[in-house]
Amino acid sequence: MSTIIKSFTFDENKKYTIGELAKKLQTTPRTIRYYEEIGLLKKADRKDGAQRVYDEEDYVRLKFIKKLKLLGLKLSQIQELERLYRGHQKDKSYIPRLIEMFDEKIFEIDEKIANLQSLKEDILSYKKRILEKLLEEEK
Questions:
Q1: Which residues pair with 110 in a beta bridge?
Q2: Residue range 22-57, pLDDT digits in tens
Q3: 59 contacts 24 by C-beta, under 8 angstroms
Q4: What CA–CA distance (Å, rounded) separates 21 from 35?
Q5: The CATH number of the domain covering residues in 2-93
Q6: pLDDT tens across 70-82, in order?
Q7: Fewest beta carbons less than 10 Å away: which of 9, 113, 119, 124?
Q8: What does the domain layout of the chain look like in residue ranges?
Q9: What CA–CA distance (Å, rounded) separates 100 from 105?
């Protein structure tokens, strides 16, 4: 993931406080700190030794993580991808695992769709029985 992120051009002078970055990403400062804690984001520089300061590269990285989460990847899977990527930047051997993760997610989605379809059918059946009962009572 790092090479993907490094392919962007960054404004090295642009800096964000944790609050500014959280607002820009529509997330919380706690989430950003957590990503630092688990190693998905490098430790932030500290302004005057106290307040966290982030740069444009951090912003792009967090945006990428957010997109992976929207695709349905769990943080543990994103961490695994990061580890795989760091170990195999040249040979791209992490790609089959990425495909496997997507296949797992597709399977989960298909299961949810099937369960929702079954639930819908149950609700429609229940609704039909209620309507029939109401019609019988009106007679």
A1: none
A2: 999 999 999 999 999 998 988 888 877 678 889 898
A3: yes
A4: 13
A5: 1.10.1660.10
A6: 888 889 988 887 7
A7: 9
A8: 2-93
A9: 9
